[in-house]
Specification:
1055 residues; 28 helices; 51 strands
Length: 1055
């Protein structure tokens, strides 16, 4: 085969090769094709002259080759056969194997394979019995043993739609429209129109099923208590029930509280005892105020939900036995509500026997005009003359205002004609169902309705049912006199406005149609265009609105904010102005202002770009200056925070008692100092516990003595008992912490931690892996912008086969870079993120690395360094050369990419052999784990990289030369520190200086929060050693006086 491949370098030039192959083993996915091992059965060489076969030679061979096929050829032919014939194939020799490439030229694959075995009998019009006839025919033929296939019209006619799909689409449309109501019945759901719920509920059988379902599955309600800031926080200022469909912040927002207000403390008491569930519905809230005199509570319901009736049952039947009898719902103006669809945002619940409005006649127009609002800020003050004082005192709806959170206080009634009655309306401690900002408008609407009620009570003729609206919101339904003109309605509004010193201008509409001032209600009620769905007459009072210039101001504000966003992106002024004018002209000022509300720069730009694309406006790209500046500021802030963090020491903590035990299981004491013959556990700093100190402590031969060295630097790794997490209490704050330390048993018996409550579970092995993708390394059909928007999903699809479980779990740390620096996603040229990969699936993931254009690098959990079990052989050339050489290494585990070079990942034990195979002319480098960095210099300018490594080897120090820092200085890495920092290079002194790592130091406090300032601990609590003079001189700074750890204080936190 090698001779044939060497002599026939170009097979298409007069020579055609055909091979009969036996396929061996399983295929290998090479990204753009499939690789199969095969054995040559026979070979046919055909020499062609003038398109005619001039000579044919057939040879029998038994060599093994590597066959490369297109994916479609493999799945269509080779997958179903064990023997294939390939013609017009190109043979390519390579070291160690011959590759038959059937992916180029005019190669084709032939095989005898059975794709499907069946027989079909086409039957048409066997019977004319419709569906039953077809079923009988199919059954009869099956009983006779005749194989048949029945084709239904739904399968053949593509224009027909499956009935199941039609029902599903209908339900989806009803759900999205918001006009449907789903009622849970015994074994199914009842779908009905939202406005026709009352008709469905009128059916006794359906109502019984719904009631039975509500009793079996009652609605879970929770209790919310809001307390005032100290010192008035003894009793809750508000107690409200709410459905589990709502979040606490939604309830507070519906009740008028500022969720971000630091003075409000929220205490949740679950009723029943189940946790609160979050629900992102975005639907409007219904705040129902329970105004019965016993409860005086609130309940927040989710009106547009499937269990709204269950919520109403929970409100109508609370746990208080005093609340009995029939109950009704009313709006804030006292109107009784009969329909669920008529409920506004805020309604009141009260017994039917207790009216909100007094039975006395309401206020007349003259009585309303007689009063005058003297103070426009809360609390509001009214001055009422003596002639109207009695009417206001007896007929003003004080009960209604009290239920809404406002107290009405009357002064003494005037005795003389010149005196006045003073009325004060102030907010009470209960929640304000009518907010402070809308109180004047509410009072105007209330006084307006009072006058109309007076007209209804004094009329004797025919009446017209009228639905009264203010600013298109229904406030009441009254039976107004049929002879009343619309001017009387407008006059009532003007009287209320005059009393409250508001603008009196008003116009009366009926829907969208303005009514003349002399129109009579009895005449216009007969016209269908003035009625709502054939119901009562609709009258809309539209108050006068004064002002102007708001639209121009919004346009200028939108232009300013949009231009600011574009200029921050580095776009020039002219291009920004043109883009802003186009976008505002296409979308409008209000919509553009909403797109620039986000505080995150990236989210704001992404939203604005998508918003402009929807209008057909393309925004200039700009650059990343805002993102780069934000990254620089964030790093500076992090460095400052790390610099200001207090350094924890052993003197700042007390070890938790009853955890450390000796070999016999007895607890050992916690000590703060060491003396001759002392036993126990002591926590020490790394500077105090050196290797010589630990050796001296072993010579003391204490019974049970354990030294816990705080931090991650072990002074004596060869005799260390292992790393531990020490449970300790801070000396100042008394807060519990977990400290990182290493354990050294220096006594005659071992000491081990043992917790009272322990639980052991089997943990599935997970490996930390980084996943990288590059813009210049995309496969055919891939779009970088799509990958930048969802990199994790793209990587998941690259490694996961159809129907297989997800391999990448818990991704984190997405980073976008351009030329090695932080960048926006759309401007980046590389993307990297981290994820967990199960150990059982790690080899399969690594083998696909690079071939699917996603590069994987397994890392250590401790220091995020590459795992030492794997080594990388860096290769010359580009990606295609790396893919070609990967075919020669059976034990390779995928491609690896640096910034501008490619390599093969192999097991560390196979590194030397693989390096010699792929790079025979180069010396095999030592595989050194770089943990420390050093700057070496000055060296002779003529010294090379190999000579520097050789010089370090003679010093007994294995290094990896990383790069040149100048003509005489080098940066090297090593796994250990050098034997000396001032060696000589050919009699020239050289300085070896450690280079600090950019990675953040490992935290000593693994759990728990340190105080903002370093803790000040008394001098008597420092760790010391005691003993004879020789011991004190040897231990240096460690001095004596044994003292047991003080008891843990349980007092309150210091100020």
């Amino acid at each position: 085969m090698f001779t044939f491949a060497r002599d026939n370098a170009n097979l298409q030039d007069g020579c055609v090769a055909c091979f009969d192959l036996d396929l061996l083993g399983s295929p290998v996915d090479a990204g753009d094709g499939m690789l199969l091992r095969a054995r040559v059965v026979q070979t046919a060489h055909v020499w062609c002259t003038n398109s005619q076969a001039a000579n044919v030679e057939i040879a029998v061979d038994d060599r093994k080759v590597l066959l490369r096929l297109r994916r479609c050829d493999y799945y269509a032919v080779a997958q179903h056969a064990s023997k294939v014939r390939v013609a017009w194939v190109v043979a390519r020799p390579s070291p160690g194997a011959v590759i038959l490439d059937a992916t180029v030229g005019h190669a084709f694959v032939i095989a005898n394979c059975v794709v499907r075995q069946d027989s079909t009998v086409h039957v048409a019009e066997v019977f004319s019995g419709g569906f039953c006839g077809w079923s009988q025919a199919a059954w009869r033929m099956s009983a006779m043993g005749v194989p048949s296939r029945t084709s239904w019209l739904l399968d053949d006619d593509t224009k027909l739609v499956d009935p199941e799909s039609l029902v599903n689409a209908c339900l989806q449309d009803c759900t999205r429209s918001g006009r449907a109501s789903f009622l849970k019945v015994t074994h199914a759901w009842q779908l009905g129109h939202l406005d026709r719920v009352e008709v469905l509920m009128a059916r006794e059988a359906l109502r019984a099923e719904i009631d039975f379902g509500l009793c079996r599955s009652p609605c879970a309600m929770h209790r919310l208590q809001v307390f005032a800031p100290p010192p008035d926080d003894a009793e809750p200022t508000l107690t409200a029930s709410f459905s589990i469909l709502l979040r606490v912040d939604q309830v507070l927002d519906a009740l008028g509280f500022d969720v971000q207000c630091p003075g409000i403390q929220v205490a949740e008491a679950c009723f029943p005892a189940i946790p609160v569930q979050a629900c992102h519905t975005g639907r409007p809230l219904s705040c129902v105020g329970a105004v019965y005199q016993v409860t005086q509570g609130l309940a927040c319901l989710m009106r547009d939900s499937s269990d709204v009736f269950a919520q109403l049952r929970a409100v109508l039947q609370p746990e208080h036995p005093q609340l009995t009898g029939a109950q009704v719902f009313t709006d804030v103006h006292g109107r009784i509500l009969h329909r669920l669809s008529d409920m506004p945002t805020c309604v009141c619940l009260l017994p039917a026997s207790e009216p909100l409005l007094p039975g006395l006649p309401a206020l007349s127009g003259n009585e309303v005009c007689a009063a005058l609002l003297t103070k426009r800020q809360a609390p509001y003050h009214f001055a009422i003359p003596a002639g109207a004082a009695t009417a206001w005192y007896a007929r003003f709806p004080t009960v209604l205002l009290e239920r809404l959170g406002w107290d009405s206080e009357f002064g003494p009634l005037p005795n003389a004609a010149g005196e006045q009655l003073h009325l004060t309306i102030r907010a009470s401690k209960r929640p304000l169902l009518v907010p402070l900002a809308g109180m004047l408008d509410y009072l105007r609407c209330t006084l307006f309705l009072e006058q109309l009620r007076m007209l209804v009570q004094t009329s004797t003729g025919a009446t017209v049912m009228t639905e009264l609206q203010v600013n298109a919101h229904t406030v009441s339904v009254l039976a107004l006199p049929a002879t009343m003109p619309t001017a009387a309605v407008a006059q009532c509004w003007e009287n209320a406005s005059y009393c409250l010193a508001l603008g009196p201008g008003v116009r009366v509409f009926s829907g969208p149609f303005p009514l003349p001032i002399d129109a009579v209600l009895g005449h216009i009620s007969g016209q269908a265009l003035h009625r709502a769905g054939g119901g009562p007459l609709v009258l809309s009072v539209m108050p006068e609105v004064r002002g102007g210039g708001a639209k121009d101001a919004n346009v200028q504000l939108a232009k300013t904010r949009l231009a600011t966003v574009l200029l921050d992106r580095g776009i020039d002024l002219h291009a920004a102005a043109v883009a802003v004018d186009k976008l505002i002209g296409a979308r409008g000022a209000a919509a553009c202002l909403q797109q620039v509300q986000a505080t995150d720069l990236h989210q704001r730009w992404e939203a604005l770009t998508a918003f402009a694309a929807g209008a057909g406006v393309t925004l200039p790209e700009g650059d990343n200056r805002a993102t780069k500046a934000a990254v620089r500021i964030q790093r500076a802030v992090q460095r400052r925070k790390l610099h200001n963090l207090p350094t924890p020491g052993a003197k700042d903590f007390y070890i938790a008692p009853d955890i450390w035990r000796s070999v016999d299981g007895n607890p050992v004491p916690i000590i703060r100092s060491i003396s001759q013959g002392a036993s126990g556990v002591i926590l020490m700093d790394a500077a105090q516990a050196r290797k010589e100190d630990l050796a001296l402590l072993r010579e003391m031969k204490a019974d049970s003595l354990c030294v816990l060295v705080l931090g991650h630097e072990c002074p004596e790794p060869d005799r260390c008992a292992g790393k531990v997490s020490v449970s300790a209490t801070h000396a100042t704050t008394q807060e519990p912490h977990l400290l990182a330390a290493c354990m050294h048993n220096v006594g005659t018996t071992e000491v081990r931690p043992k917790y009272k409550q322990q639980a052991t579970v089997t943990v599935e092995g997970m490996t930390c892996c980084s996943f990288s993708m590059y813009r210049d390394d995309l496969a055919d059909g891939q779009d970088w912008q799509t990958i930048a928007k969802q990199p994790v999903r793209e990587a998941q699809q690259a490694f996961t086969a159809p129907g297989q479980d997800r391999i990448l779990v818990h991704p984190w740390g997405r980073s976008f870079r351009a030329d090695g620096k932080a960048s926006l996603p759309q401007a980046s040229d590389s993307i990297q993120f981290h994820a967990k990969v199960p150990d059982a699936q790690l080899p399969a993931v690594l083998r696909k690395s690079g071939f699917n254009h996603v590069y994987v690098l397994p890392k250590s959990w401790e220091d995020s360094r590459p795992l030492p079990e794997w080594a990388i052989v860096w290769l010359p050339g580009g990606r295609s050369e790396a893919e070609r050489l990967a075919l020669l290494v059976p034990h390779q585990h995928g491609l690896v990419r640096g910034r501008n070079r490619y390599g093969l990942r192999v097991p560390a034990a196979e590194f030397s052999a693989t390096f010699k195979q792929l790079r025979p002319a180069d010396t095999v480098p030592e595989n050194i784990q770089v943990r420390l960095l050093f700057k070496v210099g000055p060296l002779p300018a003529k010294a090379s990289q190999e000579e520097l490594a050789q010089w370090a080897g003679k010093l007994g120090w294995k290094v990896k030369v990383l790069k040149m820092l100048g003509p005489a200085h080098w940066l090297v890495g090593s796994a250990s520190s050098p034997p000396t920092t001032l060696p000589t290079f050919n009699d020239c002194p050289v300085l070896i200086a450690a280079v600090p790592s950019r990675a953040a130091a490992k935290p000593v406090v693994q759990a728990g929060r340190l105080p903002d300032l370093p803790a000040s601990v008394p001098a008597t609590s420092s760790q010391t050693f005691a003993g004879d003079a020789h011991t004190q001189r040897t231990l240096g700074a460690l001095t004596c006086s044994s003292k047991a750890a003080p008891s843990v204080r349980r007092n309150s936190l210091p100020a």
